[in-house]
Design brief:
It contains eight helices and twelve strands. The protein is of the alpha/beta class. The protein has a single domain, classed as Purple Acid Phosphatase, chain A, domain 2. Strand 4 and strand 5 form a beta hairpin. Helix content is 30%, strand content 23%.
């Protein structure tokens, strides 16, 4: 089975559309979205529509969580708050109901999926270093791989008999997942990359071969920028950052 794993679309319909086009060319059996379909960007309704129509599982990200739990906004930056406030204004009612149905984690055989972590899913803590990964590996049990998003930064953490290492996902990295080792795979971001590469990123895992690969996709940033520029509620920085992938 080939699983495409996407995350952090952030209301960027142009990026999501190109990623879905690429996925359709790869003979994928299942698509799992790790959350943050909304927030930051200009097109929450169109993104949710496309995600709901084409994915098998949708998990809740911290932006969906904040939409449902306004008290969580205290942990958000001013730009993130602006994105949620705009989303509240324009989001169609039935999408509020759908978001409320999103789960926090998902398991398939020895694979786990979450927006940010499995140890405390509603804490939405960031796994950005070996130190953070070491703590998260303690919650794996018999599972081998945890797929996450949240940081918008594609990277893989590996645990091998108590030794830890990180593998930076430069370009379209391919990796074999070895038996007896454990991994945390950050699949990167579709709609707001922050690793200095403006292309959308997603990950494909083949369960039988135990091989995974990052894919990078170009999209029309100009269109998204113009949309953001014409929405007074959204800071223009949210459009400018897309060009640099920061």
């Amino acid at each position: 089975m080939k699983i495409a794993i996407i995350s952090d679309i952030h209301s960027n319909f142009e990026a999501l559309k190109e990623v879905m086009n690429k996925i359709s060319d790869l003979n994928i059996d299942k698509i799992i979205c790790l959350g943050d379909v909304i927030g930051y960007g200009p097109s929450p309704n169109k993104c949710l529509e496309l995600i709901l129509q084409n994915t098998d599982t949708i998990l809740m990200g911290n932006h969906e969580f904040a939409l449902l739990h306004p008290e969580y906004l205290q942990f958000f930056s001013s730009n993130a708050k602006a994105g949620i406030n705009y989303t509240k204004q324009v989001l169609l009612k039935h999408y509020f109901l759908k978001i409320n149905e999103f789960g926090l984690t998902k398991s398939i055989d020895n694979l786990m999926f979450a927006h940010s972590c499995i140890s405390q899913p509603t804490s939405f803590k960031y796994i950005t270093s070996i130190f953070h990964a070491m703590d998260e590996f303690k919650f794996f049990g018999d599972n081998q791989i945890l797929f996450i998003g949240h940081t918008h930064y594609p990277i893989i953490f590996e645990e091998n008999s108590g030794k830890y290492s990180e593998i930076k996902a430069d370009d379209e990295l391919e990796i074999e997942f070895r038996d007896g080792l454990k991994y945390i795979v950050n699949v990167g971001s579709v709609g707001q990359p922050r690793n200095g590469d403006s292309r959308s990123t997603f990950f494909v895992y083949e369960t039988q071969k135990k091989i995974g690969r990052y894919y990078k996709v170009f999209y029309n940033i100009d269109v998204v920028y113009e949309k953001i520029k014409n929405i007074p509620e959204l800071p223009i920085f949210l459009g400018k950052r897309l060009y640099k992938g920061v």
